[in-house]
UniProtKB/TrEMBL annotation:
Matching PANTHER family: COILED-COIL DOMAIN-CONTAINING PROTEIN 137
Protein name, entry field: Coiled-coil domain-containing protein 137 isoform X2
Feature: compositional bias, Basic and acidic residues: 96-106
Cellular component per GO, a single term: nucleus
InterPro entries (UniProt xref): CCDC137
Bias type Basic residues, positions: 139-148, 156-165
Superkingdom: Eukaryota
Span list, region Disordered: 66-106, 138-170
Length: 278
């Protein structure tokens, strides 16, 4: 026999309602029609919303606060005088369900041997294994032994580094680090300061044209007495100083103009040659 499926419902299968068979009229009158968007019964009074009523009732209810039971804290072992660490916890043995006496005794022996071995290891190497398990141990790296030759090299290197630092500081130093110029408010400088002291890095070799030679003094005296009075007017002129055209004589002006024209012509010739080459 095959498996019967669920019967399919048709339009004839309808729910049967319990009604009064002797009632004559429309059946809709029996149902209670709930008022929706209807006018208020009394305009002076306003009904409270359902949620507000529930909230007020909830406030009036007594507060039943359940007292939480405090958990018993973990009791740490007592530390006596002279002890650096607490004593290890003594294991409590209890026979498990389905465990034979032989297996129970073996387990007791194994756990006690582990505790003894742990204590011996801690005493031998002076290590707290409980702290290692918690991750409260800082590992110190073993220092490598350095040979005497290497130590000497390190000392020499440090001395060289100190000398290099001092040399760098001396090069950067200008000599004015300690000097401070306190400028008052409204103070004005009418001219730059005059340097009387010779700078440290100045060279002793005099620049060309600045040496006071005897020949220069003789030429200077002759020119100041003779040439300047006759040719260049009342004003005195030093060696190497230029003179304006109006102070020159007619003959000197012609010579200067000729030299000027020659210089211009030579410059033009040089320029033409360069253009041809390019």
């Amino acid at each position: 026999m095959g498996r019967l499926g669920k019967l399919q419902k048709s339009k004839k299968h309808k729910k049967i309602k319990a009604i009064d068979p002797f009632y004559v009229g429309k059946r809709g009158k029996d149902r209670e029609v709930k008022p929706v968007n209807s006018k208020p019964v009394n305009f002076e009074e306003q009904e409270m919303p359902r949620k507000v009523v529930e909230l007020m009732e909830f406030k009036l209810l007594p507060v039943n606060r359940k007292k939480k039971k405090k958990r018993a804290g973990i009791q740490e072992p007592m530390m006596e005088k002279g002890m650096t660490k607490p004593l290890p916890a003594v294991p409590k043995f209890k026979q498990r369900k389905g465990e034979s006496e032989h297996a129970f005794f073996n387990r007791m022996d194994r756990e006690t041997q582990e505790v003894i071995a742990k204590a011996q290891f801690e005493d031998k190497y002076k290590v707290d294994l409980n702290a290692i398990e918690k991750g409260e141990v800082k590992v110190k790296k073993k220092k490598k032994k350095i040979s005497e030759r290497k130590r000497e090299r390190q000392k020499e290197r440090k001395v060289k580094q100190k000398i290099q630092k001092t040399n760098k500081v001396e090069k950067k130093a200008t000599g004015f680090e300690k000097l401070e110029d306190n400028v008052k408010f409204g103070e004005v400088a009418m001219e730059p300061p005059t340097l009387t002291a010779k700078p440290k890095q100045a060279s002793d070799i005099a620049k060309p044209g600045r040496k006071s030679l005897l020949l220069k003094e003789v030429i200077r005296d002759n020119q100041s007495h003779n040439i300047n009075k006759s040719v260049f007017g009342p004003k005195s002129r030093e060696v190497g100083q230029t003179v304006k055209r109006k102070h020159l004589s007619f003959a000197q002006q012609r010579l200067v103009d000729g030299e000027r024209e020659k210089a211009i012509e030579t410059y033009r010739l040089m320029k033409a040659k360069r253009q041809k080459v390019s």
